[in-house]
Specification:
By secondary structure, the chain is α+β, with helices and mostly antiparallel strands. It has a domain at about 65-145. The chain has 4 helices and 6 strands; from the N terminus they run ααββββββαα. The strands form 2 sheets. It has a 4-stranded antiparallel sheet with strand order 1-4-5-6, covered by helices on one side. A two-stranded antiparallel ribbon has the order 2-3. The protein starts with a helix and ends with a helix.
Length: about 150
């Protein structure tokens, strides 16, 4: 009983769509200027690009919202090698950042940040959990992660 009504509604929607396509095909082609036509002279006002977004809607610092972060407490093993901080030698309790420029950065407990070229965003996505909180600044995120 319900199947017939659904089929009838489907056929009516199909007919309406076909009618719309026929109507669109019968419209005249739009007038497009030929490439040989000379372009209109540019006015100084036309060259000005509007400031978007407005300054009052911009984020104060680009670093404040650049990517994702997660905590990595165990030693980080990359290509069979335990990754250690080049400045202080720490080898565990990292904060791993996945930046918008597709780089992975590591931050040790001592606050040293280094780029890790052997990791990529795909590695980050495989090893991170779901995003559970958004933070306005990096410092807020680090406080949330206990760093």
């Amino acid at each position: 009983m319900f199947r017939r009504r659904i089929d009838r509604e489907f056929r009516e929607a199909q007919r309406a769509g076909q009618e719309l396509l026929r109507m669109h095909a019968s419209w005249p082609a739009p007038d497009v200027a030929s490439p040989a036509a000379e372009p209109a002279p540019a006015t100084p006002a036309a060259d000005v690009v509007p400031d978007f977004p407005p300054p009052d809607l911009r984020v104060p610092s680009r670093q404040e919202v650049e990517g994702l972060m997660m905590r990595w407490e165990q030693p980080l093993v990359i290509d069979g090698e335990v990754r250690a901080c080049p400045q202080c030698g720490a080898y565990r309790d990292w904060v791993v950042f996945s930046m918008r420029d597709d780089t992975i950065r590591l931050r040790c407990r001592g606050g040293h940040t280094t780029v890790e070229p052997r990791l990529d965003p795909a590695w980050y996505n495989r090893n991170s959990g779901p995003v559970d909180q958004w933070h306005a600044t990096v410092d807020d995120g680090l406080r949330h992660l206990g760093h």
